[in-house]
Amino acid sequence: xxxxxxxxxxxxxxxxxxxxxxxxxxxxxxxxxxxxxxxxxxxxxxxxxxxxxxxxxxxxxxxxxxxxxxxxxxxxxxxxxxxxxxxxxxxxxxxxxxxxxxxxxxxxxxxxxxxxxxxxxxxxxxxxxxxxxxxxxxxxxxxxxxxxxxxxxxxxxxxxxxxxxxxxxxxxxxxxxxxxxxxxxxxxxxxxxxxxxxxxxxxxxxxxxxxxxxxxxxxxxxxxxxxxxxxxxxxxxxxxxxxxxxxxxxxxxxxxxxxxxxxxxxxxxxxxxxxxxxxxxxxxxxxxxxxxxxxxxxxxxxxxxxxxxxxxxxxxxxxxxxxxxxxxxxxxxxxxxxxxxxxxxxxxxxxxxxxxxxxxxxxxxxxxxxxxxxxxxxxxxxxxxxxxxxxxxxxxxxx
Length: 399
Prior knowledge:
13 strands; globular
C-alpha cells in the first residue's frame, strides 16, 4: 500500500514540477475577468461552465451628480450546483494586501502625498467613521444603487477630514477611504504577513478531532517560521509598529470557531480578522487535506499566469473553494471579486513600473498556500493526528 501511495505521489510531483517550469500557461482556467470584459455590454448574459454553475454579468448602472457611473458587481447565481448545501465544505480566502492606491498607477499624486501624511491611528478613526456613515445611508435608502450613489457623494467635509483633502472630488475621496479601509484590514489580520486571510470557513469536523489552541501554537508557529511564511513584503518601521500593536490585541481561540450544534467550524469575516497566523495555517491544513491534489495545480496555474501577465492589476480578489464532505473529488475552485481590478495597458505607457511587477502581493500569498499544500501532500507533518485523551473528551462534554 505504501509503495502504491509513493508511486502516486511521485507522479503528482512530476506534474506539479511541469506546471512550475512552464513559461506559458495554456488553457488557463481563470477566465472570469476576461468573461466579464467580453460580455460587459451584454446585460444579464449567462456564462455556463459545464452546467455546474451560472454566472451573470449585471450591467445595470446609475449616474450620480458628478457623472460617476456605478456598476453592479458580478453575481454568482449557482455555486457548485452538484453539491448539496448540507454537504458543502466552503472557504473564502481574501488574497493579497495591496490597496486601490497601491495598484492605480495614475492615482492623483498630490492626494497620495496627503494620504501619507495621515498616521495609521487617524486612518483607522476615519475608516470607522466612514463605515458608520455608510451603514446609516444603507438603512435610509433601500435600493443598492441609490445607497451606493449617496455613499460616493460623501465629501471630505462630511467626514471632517483635514483641510488638505477638501480640494479633492468625491470620487477621489471614496477611493482614498476604500484604500485606507483595505490597508487597516490588512494590518489587523493575517493579510500583511501571510498574503491572505480567511473571510469565510465552513468545515464539518468532530470537536474531538481538533487541536486545542496551545497545541496549534506549538506545532504551527514552528511551521510558519521554518517555512518563512512571514515574508517581509517591504514592511517599513511604521507598519512594523502598527502590526505589533494589532498582534498584541486579544485573539480568539480555535474553540471559539466551533458550533457544537451543527458540529462545524464556522468562521465569518469578523472572526477571520481576529485569527493568528498559526491558527489560519492550521485551519487551512485540515480544510485542504482531502483536496490538496486537486487545488495545488490550480494554485500553480494562477501563480504562473499572474507572474507572466502585465495587463491587469488586482486588488481585494478572493479564492472560493467548495467541495463535498462525502465526495471530495466534487471540488470547485474559483478566483472571484474583480470590483477593484484595473487594466494597466494605457497607464504603463505614462507610468512605467521600473522593473517592478504587478500583483506581487497576491503571488506572495499564493506562494505560501503552495508551500502549505506541498507539505500536506508530500509529508505527514501537518495536519498532525489528534490524540483523543481523557482530558480532551471531558472538555467536549462540558462544552
